[in-house]
Specification:
The complex is a heterodimer of chains A (about 325) and B (about 500). By secondary structure, chain A is mainly α. Chain A is built from 12 helices and 4 strands. Chains A and B meet through helix 8 of A and helix 2 and strand 8 of B.
């Protein structure tokens, strides 16, 4: 029963959509083609893409992680607060932010895997908790991270460097690319990845195969938390001043990106490269549509429609195979 | 038969409200195939779950290879060499065959899973078993029969000392069962201990050395298969004699009108130019090997799958059936071979299931008329003799046979005159099987017309008034029951199509 699905996989379709979007925006708007536009778009993309890579894992298990958006803000607030108020070295603060994400991921995982809460509910609760926690930690004040010019602002260079002739280079793209390769490798070629798919496809069978499903299920949410932690650093590097109480809704763009990129909304299938491409489609729509005269509201509507289209492709694809 | 490899002594297990195992004994020797028999709910599966660590026993001892053991999960049992081939298929549909066979114990190169080696080893395994399956195929693309073969291959690959087959043949065709038996004989020759759970009496006689019978959670006795008759075993199981004699003549009156006529039905590769007639009060058997296109024909007729061409006449009138909804409107009911997936909502009550497809008729304004719903459900519980404490019982708590009755009730409530039974007794024990048979006969006598798809030869010969045989998507024979023999049917089912 050989299937010819390789050429028209959702990932390929979405890659073409991404290229098409870029060309369309460029043609209509001359501003969109400018290098500075590209740079600012890349700046904003990093944290969305990082969140999308992380959340792809819960999605593939048939779950979801709604706590990554507010979580990211909470972790960024915590790290920034340490630098600001305790003169904490930037490196340590970054580590704290990332580990904070991992801990919240662990909490999600335990609620879902050990206590049996539905992922939607467990992560929704943590969405609220992290939102509140961020405000509590900082006393509801906005927290600025060091700027690129300050000595302890070196972390900006992780994402963007300026060469001798004043050209700015979006170095973050390289990290995104490497992380994408790494996580795709983990998903496709390690036990953790294989069991992530197995949990999403038939959890009962995974249990009966003697897999420690509880452990791997917790791990899945820790990965999601880890990437939300990484995203918080990218966020701090771009946004500079982190506002408590924000972040809600960002997780939806990340989840949307993963789904657009072919991660099955019902679990059991997905790729990380698809997720990254899908996340960029969402970012292009978000950033590009205003350039060709659509306002933010229209942009939301269009993004929603694109998402419906992506889910439909998933459903049709599954029907054809079954 | 070699020395004793496994002894289960006085195993006791109580669930809330149920004494599932009451001091049960069981013994298995190397190089024997030991049948474990009993009606559904007799405790066979529970006993095996205690053995493989899924359940913890309350008391009693398990001695394996001379040592007392107790496993806490299937993994421990597997590692010790006790493996179960489950009745319900436990496959991860989105992974490949090879990935499924080695799930939980993947070969690795560093942190990487060595998929190539897994494919190689799977191939070897399949070669040994003379099975033709591509290890790289996605599991959900395989037929149920092939999936079952993979499950067996997986069990064997565990270097097992004891393999438990839990109703392995339920989903298999005659040909596949023969293959299975060849495999099992090979395993026996390698001195493995094999526990074989099945409801099929003829299989027990063919493949097993000894039979242990359980009833209502108790141990009834152990017999040498060759020294006992089918009736002996059945009597131990149910305490009453059941005769499984083939039907000798059609019960349909000569002047019974044709209620359903299908002409030149085409739907993909599995249904090619199929034509047949169904008469009032007739049980029309559909026989054939797995993949013959019987279920596909039924699904195309029922509107569940798209059809390329073909005309359907009901009571002489041409009808359009493009969806199951159309089919139901025209009085056709379909009882799927896979009850749990398509037939019933197990976590709902009998009442909710019974009126699921007729809910419109039980509405009082915006609300459901619970009383009317309950009345009709109770009527069918009585008529079909469904064994349940009440209409409010969750379907998941019923035995397989009684679940099947709930599905039948659903279609009867709907007033369907044409009922398609797809493997009506799969996974149902002997006693309940007979009740389903009686019920089908009664429905036919009352003027319902039945299409019965079955892979069990005895069932076909016992129930059908007429038999249609299919092979590779084509109708290859139509045999009146008076002329039907196993040989005649097998001949048509395996006929070479030029």
């Amino acid at each position: 029963m050989a299937k010819k699905k390789t050429i028209f996989s959702q990932e390929v379709i979405v890659a073409f959509v991404l290229i098409a979007l870029y060309l369309i925006f460029r043609t209509i708007s001359s501003d969109f083609g400018k290098y500075t536009t590209f740079l600012s778009m890349m700046d904003i993309s990093y944290y969305y893409v990082l969140m999308a890579i992380g959340v792809a894992f819960p999605l593939i298990t048939g779950g979801v992680d709604l706590s990554i958006g507010t979580g990211m803000i909470c972790y960024a607030l915590a790290g920034g607060f340490l630098i600001r108020n305790y003169n904490c070295p930037t490196g340590l603060a970054i580590l704290v932010s990332i580990m904070f994400g991992v801990v919240i991921g662990l909490f999600n995982g335990v609620l879902i895997s050990v206590l049996g809460l539905p992922p939607f509910l467990a992560t929704l609760c943590n969405c609220m908790i992290t939102r509140g926690l961020g405000s509590v930690v900082t006393g509801s004040f906005a927290v600025p991270w060091p700027t690129a010019k300050q000595a302890n602002g070196w972390f900006h260079a992780i994402f963007k460097i300026t060469t001798a002739d004043k050209t700015k280079i979006p170095l973050g793209l390289v990290w995104i690319f490497l992380l994408m390769l790494l996580m795709q490798f983990i998903l496709a070629h390690t036990r953790f990845g294989r069991y992530t798919i197995a949990i999403g496809s038939n959890k009962e069978a995974a249990v009966l195969s003697g897999i420690n499903v509880k452990f791997y299920h917790v791990m899945v949410y820790m990965v999601s938390g880890l990437f939300a932690g990484l995203a918080s650093i990218a966020y701090a590097a771009v946004i500079k001043t982190v506002q408590p109480g924000t972040g809600a809704g960002m997780e939806l763009d990340a989840i949307g990106g993963a789904i657009v990129g072919g991660v099955s909304a019902s679990g059991g299938y997905g790729t990380i490269y698809g997720t990254v491409i899908g996340a960029y489609v969402i970012i292009f729509l978000k950033q590009g549509l205003p350039y060709i005269g659509f306002n933010a509201n229209m942009q939301q509507i269009i993004t929603g429609l694109v998402l419906i289209g992506a889910v439909c492709i998933d459903i049709i694809k599954r029907k054809v195979i079954v | 038969m070699g020395e004793v490899i496994l002894t289960m002594d006085s195993i006791d297990k109580t669930f809330p409200g149920v004494h599932a195992l009451d001091h049960v004994n069981f013994e298995l020797r190397r190089g024997e195939v030991h049948a474990l028999m009993g009606e559904n709910g007799a405790g066979k599966s529970t006993l095996m779950k205690v053995l493989t660590g899924i359940y913890t026993k309350d008391s009693g001892t398990i001695t394996f290879e001379g040592k007392e053991v107790e496993y806490h999960n299937t993994r421990e049992a597997q590692d010790a060499g006790i493996v179960i081939v489950h009745q319900e298929l436990n496959m991860v549909g989105d992974l490949t065959v090879a990935q499924n066979i080695f799930i939980g114990r993947e070969f690795r190169k560093g942190i990487m899973i060595d998929d190539r080696k897994m494919i190689r080893e799977s191939k070897k395994l399949f070669d040994e078993l003379h099975i033709d399956i591509d290890p790289r195929a996605r599991m959900s693309d395989l037929t149920v029969g092939k999936q079952q073969m993979c499950e067996i291959a997986k069990a064997i690959s565990h270097k097992a000392k004891i393999i438990i087959f839990d109703e392995p043949s339920a989903a298999l065709t005659e040909k596949e069962i023969e293959d299975l038996f060849t495999i099992i004989r090979g395993l026996r020759a390698q001195n493995l201990g094999i526990i074989y759970i099945s409801h099929r009496m003829d299989e027990i006689k063919v493949i097993t050395d000894r039979v242990t019978v359980m009833r209502d959670g108790t141990y009834v006795g152990t017999l040498i298969t060759n020294d006992c008759t089918k009736e002996d075993i059945i009597n131990m199981m149910v305490g009453r004699v059941i005769y499984e004699e083939p039907k000798t003549h059609s019960m349909v009156p000569d002047d019974a009108p044709v209620v359903l006529k299908v002409e030149h039905l085409n739907a993909g590769k599995m249904v090619q130019d199929v034509s047949f007639e169904l008469r009032k009060g007739e049980i029309l058997g559909f026989s054939g090997l797995m993949g013959a296109g019987r279920t596909e024909t039924a699904r195309a007729l029922f509107g569940a799958d798209p059809r390329q061409s073909g005309d359907i006449y009901i009571n002489g009138r041409k009808v359009t059936i493009n969806s199951p909804e159309d089919a139901v409107k025209n009085g056709i009911g379909y009882l799927s071979e896979d009850r749990k997936r398509f037939g019933i909502v197990v976590q709902k009550t009998i009442t909710e299931n019974s009126t699921l497809s007729t809910l419109k008729e039980y509405m009082a304004g915006l609300f459901i008329n619970k009383k009317a719903e309950k009345t009709v459900t109770e009527q069918y519980i009585r008529e079909l003799d469904t064994k349940t404490p009440g209409a409010d019982q969750l379907v998941v708590n019923l035995s397989g046979g009684n679940q099947q009755k709930v599905v039948i009730a659903k279609w009867l409530v709907r007033n369907c005159d044409i009922l398609i039974f797809d493997e009506p007794t799969r996974g149902i024990d002997v006693g309940a099987k007979n009740e389903i048979y009686k019920l089908m006969n009664r429905l036919a006598a009352e003027g319902k017309s039945i299409i019965m798809i079955s892979s069990e030869m005895t069932e076909i010969l016992r129930m059908s008034d007429r038999i249609i045989v299919m092979c590779e998507g084509k109708k290859t024979g139509e045999i009146p029951i008076e002329q039907a023999t196993q040989e005649a049917i097998m001949d048509k089912a395996t006929r070479d199509i030029g």
